[in-house]
TrEMBL record:
PROSITE patterns: PFKB_KINASES_2 (PS00584)
Domain Carbohydrate kinase PfkB: 29-298
Organism of origin: Paractinoplanes lichenicola
Pfam families (alphabetical): PfkB
Family (UniProt): Belongs to the carbohydrate kinase PfkB family.
Keyword Transferase: yes
Lineage top rank: taxon: Bacteria
Protein name: Sugar kinase
Length: 317
């Protein structure tokens, strides 16, 4: 089946340190990566999706590959015999994440090149989704993202970019320099308030969310979505401002909420939804994932986003 959405980026094995925060005993192994989180979210919502990357030819790489495939995502990831699968460690305090440490320098995904990405898959897709994380991994991944965007533009495939700024990977100035060169080729941009401010880089008076969206839209994207966390999200599209409120949630683990939002938005977009519907779907998906521990485990299925599901809070006995 041809993928409606194609995405690429690094997924790492994930070690979650127990709630006492001490690395002194057994800890569960999982996986995490912004792009594969989005891919899993799309697959659960019924949108065919392909995730592309490189993994180490090691046990962690085999685990990552198997788990993502098990979620219904098509995986295209070369097994690199000379570089390991990346690793991240999530530290907890009182049962909730307090810090994430990355061990990804020299990882297999940092050796990603345009040769790893089949152009024909991008050309045949409705959406290419990339993030600001991948170009931060090194020159090869940066060229890969740029190449993928060029292929998508030439084929008429919609280009989606989530800023997903990681200060542990590069500085604000480095991120701004690279990502702003991509903006004229981007159709759909996702950013948080701080990320939008970083991209604009001007030290002038503080702007509200709608002004940030409008300013970024003037850089090229037809639609700019500003993620507002518990307050929902807004979009500036074709000169119009659209807002969508989020429902209150008890937050157990906020990591992955932004990826869930993007998955919900893109799934609704592929189904022909307008901006208002896409925002609402993104809010519902993001609200679901924060209610359970893990980066992606709480990603909703389509049935979870129905109006009936919103009222299904009773314990079934």
């Amino acid at each position: 089946m041809t993928a409606r959405v194609v995405t690429l980026g690094e997924t790492m094995a994930l070690v979650s340190v127990p709630a006492d925060g001490l690395v002194r005993g057994p800890a569960p192994i999982g996986l995490g990566g912004a792009e594969s989180n989005v891919a899993i979210g799309l697959a659960r919502l019924g949108t065919p999706v392909t995730w592309m990357s490189r993994l180490g030819d090691d046990g962690l790489g085999a685990y990552v590959r198997r788990e993502i495939r098990a979620e219904g995502v098509t995986v295209l990831a070369a097994a690199d015999p000379d570089a390991p699968t990346g690793l991240m460690v999530k530290e907890l305090r009182h049962g909730t994440p307090s810090r994430v440490r990355y061990y990804r320098s020299g990882s297999a995904a940092s050796r990603l090149t345009p040769d790893d990405i089949p152009d024909e898959l991008i050309a045949a897709a409705d959406v290419l989704h990339v993030t600001g994380i991948t170009p931060a991994l090194g020159p090869g991944p940066r060229k890969t993202v740029e190449h993928a965007v060029e292929v998508a533009r030439a084929a008429g495939t919609l280009v989606s970019l989530d800023v997903n700024h990681r200060r542990t990977l590069w500085t604000d100035d480095e991120a701004r320099s690279v990502l702003t060169t991509l903006l004229p080729s981007v159709d759909l941009l996702f950013a948080g308030v701080e990320e939008a401010t970083m991209l604009l880089g001007s030290p002038g008076p503080q702007r509200d969310e709608s002004e940030l969206g409008a300013a970024l839209a003037s850089s090229g994207p037809a639609t700019v979505v500003i993620k507002l966390g518990e307050r929902g999200a807004l979009a500036v599209s074709a000169g119009e401002l659209v807002r969508a409120e989020a429902s209150p949630r008890v937050v157990v683990d906020p990591v992955g909420a932004g990826d869930a939002f993007v998955a919900g938005y893109l799934s609704a977009l592929c189904d022909g939804g307008d901006v208002s519907h896409c925002l609402a779907t993104g809010n519902r998906a993001g609200g679901q994932v924060v209610t359970v521990p893990g980066d992606w485990e709480g990603l909703p299925f389509a049935a979870d986003l129905t109006p009936q599901a919103a009222f299904a809070d009773e314990v079934i006995r």
